[in-house]
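User: Design a sequence. Structure:
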């Protein structure tokens, strides 16, 4: 299980490594895939009672990072780095150490971001997941409301830190809601749009829906100088548009460095 603590990351996070301070998460979101994987593999019995990693264990793993230069480390893919005080303290300590090794962190939470983050490396990327603006309790019963997350993220953005919102893995089957989230989060540097799990509509319509949302987000982000990450791809045979293979590629913006 130790090799889960620091591992080479792949996929949409765009990071080189990931680190997690616990197995399990008190937020217990209804859509959590990490919970399913951990339970299936017998790593934990009760997802809401996390097994915390020792700092010494984490630091030992961090020594692997000293072999690399200028990496981006994702904190944390399969638990929330700020779900409670224990993880929060550990996360801040680990982020500091990663920064001291010359690496940057990409930090994502459904909790309340500690303002202490503004005193760490200004090269870190600080984000909050937002799947709904109101009534987020249905999907995320034990995490702070989206508005509380956004208020804290805004304070951090106002200090000149690179901030982002992550709209995934599940978004409501409500186009207006996505637009409202983007407008509320207009202060961020980046919108990561990955939500595929719209409720209650067939797969083909989900993709269509996502393309509509992508159109809006592309224009919105362009007008507001926000970087848009949109990992949508549509298979050729679906043929919703004329272009082949990756339909929205013209909509991807290069991330600012
Ligand atoms: S915050 Fe993330 S890790 Fe925690 S329960 Fe929700 S989806 Fe899972």
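Assistant: Done.
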């Amino acid at each position: 299980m130790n090799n889960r603590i620091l591992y080479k990351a792949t996929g949409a996070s765009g990071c080189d490594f990931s680190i997690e301070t616990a197995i399990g998460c008190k937020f217990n979101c209804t859509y959590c895939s990490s919970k399913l994987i951990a339970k299936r593999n017998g790593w934990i019995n009760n997802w809401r009672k996390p097994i915390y990693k020792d700092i010494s264990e984490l630091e030992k793993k961090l020594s692997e990072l000293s072999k690399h230069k200028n990496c981006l480390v994702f904190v944390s893919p399969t638990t929330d780095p700020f779900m409670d005080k224990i993880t929060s303290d550990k996360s801040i300590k680990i982020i500091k150490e990663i920064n001291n090794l010359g690496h940057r962190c990409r930090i994502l939470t459904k909790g309340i971001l500690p303002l202490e983050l503004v005193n760490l490396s200004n090269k870190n990327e600080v984000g909050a997941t937002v799947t709904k603006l109101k009534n987020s309790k249905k999907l995320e019963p034990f995490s702070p409301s989206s508005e509380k997350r956004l208020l804290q993220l805004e304070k951090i953005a106002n200090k000149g830190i690179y901030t982002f919102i992550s709209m995934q893995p599940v978004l409501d089957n409500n186009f207006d809601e996505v637009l409202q989230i983007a407008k509320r989060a207009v202060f961020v540097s980046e919108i990561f749009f990955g939500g595929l799990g719209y409720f209650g509509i067939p797969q083909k319509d989900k993709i269509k829906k996502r393309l509509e949302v992508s159109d809006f987000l592309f224009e919105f982000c362009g007008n507001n100088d926000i970087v848009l990450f949109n990992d949508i791809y549509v298979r050729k045979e679906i043929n919703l548009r004329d272009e082949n293979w990756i339909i929205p590629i013209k909509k991807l913006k290069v991330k600012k460095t």
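The chain is about 30% helix and 15% strand. Residues 1-109 form a domain with the Transcription Regulator spoIIAA fold (CATH 3.30.750).
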